Amino acid sequence: MTSDNENGALSDEQIAERLLERDHSVFTSLYRNYFQNLLMLAHKYVKDQLQAEEIIQDVFLRLWESPIALENPAAMRSYLYRAVINQSINHINKQKNISKHHSIIAEQLTEEYIDTLHEENELKLLIHREIELLPEQCKKVFKMSRFDHMKYREIAQELNIAEKTVENHIKNALKTLRERLFIDTENGNKHYSVRLKMSIAFLLLCEKTRN
User: Fold this and answer.
1) Residue from 135, 173, 137 nearest 155 by CA
2) Cα distance between residue 169 and residue 21, in whole Å
3) DSSP letters of 66-121?
4) End-to-end C-alpha distance for the chain, whole angstroms
5) What is the mean pLDDT of each run of 10 residues along the chain (211 residues)?
6) Can you name the CATH fold of 114-206?
7) Where are the domains of the chain?
8) pTM (2 d.p.)
């Protein structure tokens, strides 16, 4: 099994071996390639950006200091995801003293659950990357609508454009994103389940009322 990284053709086993040898370049590359997915995973539980970042840093620090802790070097992604989830559980228990979180979340730590989380994070990143590729004004209007929760009228006033222009930008953005993200191709592109597409894209890509 190979990991989702850009370390050339290195397998998870080779990466684990290089970590044991204190290969800083491999460690840095591993950190960069997993950081965004793991950050979203931690934030899913702790609901705090800074705390989520601290959890990721702590997990990687422990991996660097004690790489031998990776008992199964062929499961790098699973190790990182489990470590982040466990750290998140610890934070929840410390901050809120609610022990039930531990048993509920721990029961979900299956390979299928981890794969689903990873796929969900990949799709979120893909959506945001595609938004960044929209024409500048169209992208600005779309972000103000979806991320800043501004009404069409407010966007029009802020940008000094007609409300109809705002509406057209939103329609064009939605059309472009739907075509790029959800039309299956025959070129071997990654396939996401319909349920996952709908659940992740709902807030970003569904039609919204103007006011």
Assistant:
1) 137
2) 53
3) -GGG-S-TT-HHHHHHHHHHHHHHHHHHHHH--THHHHHHHTT-SHHHHHHHHHHH
4) 49
5) 47 76 83 90 89 91 73 74 90 67 60 70 79 91 87 92 92 82 51 50 51 49
6) Arc Repressor Mutant, subunit A (1.10.10)
7) 12-109, 114-206
8) 0.48
